[in-house]
């Protein structure tokens, strides 16, 4: 049977939000790297990119954990639906 | 999703002289993951965005001259393709190929600060790769097709001057992190597409679930590699700044 999930399903929204948050962080970091690449002084490049990399690593680690948590919620929900015959 | 490298177009001419627009996003979309990584890494890490900008035609010729549907390239075809492009750079030009060498199945570019091996034809072991070089190098496999080799720093032995930063070192690190960032975004983008399909009712939830689990699995590996590379970069940044402060 083909299943349907509503657009406001909390499980899908949860993992979607977690994935989007991580993607936004990566996009922001990519822009930081691009800015650093434009600097002509290697010392300044290293300082700027190094500091932002340090900050980013901490945030990415947390966001990755959020993705894992929301994945668990999502998978549990799918399993529960399958067991109850809804899917 | 935006692409650092190909977000531009160039004008090319067909054999009968007609002018055509070529969009690098479209070209990039045709590449296999291995080909894309190779081109991203080769162009950006080795030469940087500025050089890329001034060599767009050569790079596009390079792309056109290789079979972009392939997952494995021979060293000969890459070298020949490169030579035909007219690619110019002080450290690597058709007239100065001593900085580009081929050993075994690996295409190697030697820079002042490090050695980058592009292992196009896979199958070499870490020991075989290490054995190609006269002194110790730190081996780091980026994926099946690309290997980084950087000089191993002997703690307490290096003078401050030899550990000072060069343009190339910083560009290499930043480029590597940029490529890894884009890889993660690629995985995230695929996950978002799948989830959106599920939300719209266009994709079966079991398929969404499967794609999501696979995406997260890939993501875990990519993020772990990214964090490792980022921590190395942070350490290098701290070391370099300490050294420069002492000089």
Task: Please summarize the sheet with the most strands of chain A.
Answer: none
> How are the strands ordered across the major sheet of chain B?
3-4-5-7-6
3D shape of chain B: elongated
Structure classification of chain B: alpha+beta
N-end to C-end Cα span of chain A: 7 Å
- In what range is the share of β-strand residues of chain A? under 5%
Assembly annotation = heterodimer
Give the low-confidence spans of chain B. Answer: 1-15, 18-22, 71-75, 87-123, 129-165
How big a fraction of the residues of chain B is strand? 5-15%
Key structural traits:
A: about 90 residues, mainly alpha, rod-shaped, B: about 250 residues, alpha+beta, five-stranded antiparallel sheet, elongated
Please sum up the structure shown.
By secondary structure, chain A is mainly alpha-helical.
Structure notes:
The complex is a heterodimer of chains A (87) and B (247). Chain A has helices at 10-38, 42-83. Chain A is mainly alpha-helical and 87 residues long. With 247 residues, chain B is an alpha+beta fold. Chain B has helices spanning 24-30, 33-54, 56-65, 75-85, 126-131, 167-199, 205-246, and strands at 9-13, 19-23, 100-103, 106-110, 115-118, 137-141, 147-151. Chain B has a five-stranded antiparallel β-sheet with strand order 3-4-5-7-6. A two-stranded antiparallel ribbon of chain B has the order 1-2. The longest helix of chain B is centred in the last third of the chain and has 42 residues, at 205-246. Chains A and B meet through helix 1 and helix 2 of A and helix 6 and helix 7 of B.
């Amino acid at each position: 049977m083909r299943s349907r999930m509503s657009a406001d399903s909390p499980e899908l929204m949860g993992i979607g939000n977690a994935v989007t948050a991580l993607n936004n962080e990566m996009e922001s970091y990519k822009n930081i790297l691009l800015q650093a690449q434009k600097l002509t002084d290697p010392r300044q490049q290293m300082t700027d990119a190094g500091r932002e990399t340090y900050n980013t690593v901490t945030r990415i680690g947390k966001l990755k954990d959020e993705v894992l948590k929301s994945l668990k919620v999502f998978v549990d929900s799918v399993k529960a639906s399958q067991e109850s015959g809804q899917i | 999703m935006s692409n650092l490298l190909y977000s531009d177009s160039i004008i090319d001419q067909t054999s009968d002289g007609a002018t055509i627009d070529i969009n690098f996003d479209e070209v990039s979309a045709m590449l296999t993951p291995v080909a894309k990584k190779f081109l991203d890494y080769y162009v950006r890490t080795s030469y940087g965005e500025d050089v890329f900008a001034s060599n767009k035609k050569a790079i596009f010729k390079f792309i056109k001259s290789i079979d972009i549907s392939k997952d494995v390239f021979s060293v000969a075809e890459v070298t020949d393709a490169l030579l035909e492009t007219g690619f110019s750079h002080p450290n690597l030009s058709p007239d100065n190929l001593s900085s580009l060498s081929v050993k075994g199945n690996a295409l190697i570019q030697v820079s002042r600060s490090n050695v980058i091996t592009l292992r196009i034809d896979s199958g070499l072991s870490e020991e075989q790769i290490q054995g190609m070089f006269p002194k110790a190098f730190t081996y780091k496999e980026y994926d099946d097709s690309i290997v980084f080799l950087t000089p191993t720093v002997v703690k307490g032995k290096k003078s401050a001057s030899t550990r000072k930063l060069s343009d190339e070192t910083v560009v290499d690190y930043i480029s590597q992190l940029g490529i890894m960032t884009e890889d993660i975004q690629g995985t995230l983008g695929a996950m978002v597409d799948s989830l959106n399909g599920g939300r719209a009712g266009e994709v079966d939830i079991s398929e969404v679930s499967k794609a999501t689990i696979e995406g997260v699995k890939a993501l875990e590996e990519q993020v772990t590699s990214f964090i490792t590379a980022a921590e190395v970069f942070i350490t290098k940044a701290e070391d370099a700044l300490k050294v420069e402060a002492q000089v």
